What we know:
This protein has helices spanning 2-22, 30-39, 43-56, 61-73, 77-90, 95-107, 111-124, 129-141, 145-158, 163-179. By secondary structure, it is mostly helical. The radius of gyration is 27 Å and the shape is elongated.
Amino acid sequence: MAEEKTNTESDKVKQNELEAAVKPEETEGPSQLLIKAGEAENYEDKLRLYDKALNLDPMYLDAWLQKGFVLDRIGRSEEALACYNKALEIDPDHLGIKCLKGFAYNNLKDFEKAIECYDEVLKVNSDDVFSWYQKGLVLENLERYGEAMEAYDRALEIDPTDVLIREKRMKLLGIIFKKETLTDSPDSSFN
């Protein structure tokens, strides 16, 4: 009886070893790595995980986007642009990538290129509130207040409930009032 019990236990151990040998080793795929990156607490860990995901799948669009976003957040906007350009090679019609490029150019103080990015989006989707708002911010940086006001007004036509845009528009009105200028406004009563 003891011998039979030992054989049964031995058979179970062998069976488990066999199953373990046959069972493929579980590895993290790119999507699992992006989930981990989202949970990571610092940007360097996030970047490491994005790179790991991209090593597994160099055509993984979300990894390029998120890596670019993190790089832009930590002041490495030129590297972010390289990520966004790679993402556009994968999906040339992705409007979100063009918006992100606008952010990066704005951070690099290349305001004209930022406007070009937002205009590309607006050519395809003239109701993109976010692009109108961002374009307004860039125009404000260029002190083109009349055009900035038009951008904010257009955004508010699309979404009149957006509190952030309303506040930004009111602040711009304060700047215009202080400077006593709105010479680039198409509305002559503003000039």
